[in-house]
Amino acid sequence: MAYFSRMRTFARLSLASAALIVAALPATLATAQSGGPYTVVESGQRFAKLQDAINSIDAGVGTIRIAPGRYADCGVQPRGDIRYIAEVPGQSVFDGVTCEGKAAFVLRGRSSVVEGMVFTNMRVDDGNGAGIRLERGNLAVSQTWFRDSEQGILTAEDPASTISIDKSTFTRLGRCDRGLSCAHSIYTARYGAVTVTRSRFEAGRGGHYVKTHALQVGIFNNSFDDTAGRDTNYMIDLSVGSTGRIANNWFVQGRNKENYTTFIAIAPEARENSSDGLTIEGNDARFAPGAARDTFFVVDWQGGRINLGQNALGAGLQKYQRR
Question: Over the chain, what is the mean pLDDT?
Answer without folding.
Answer: 92
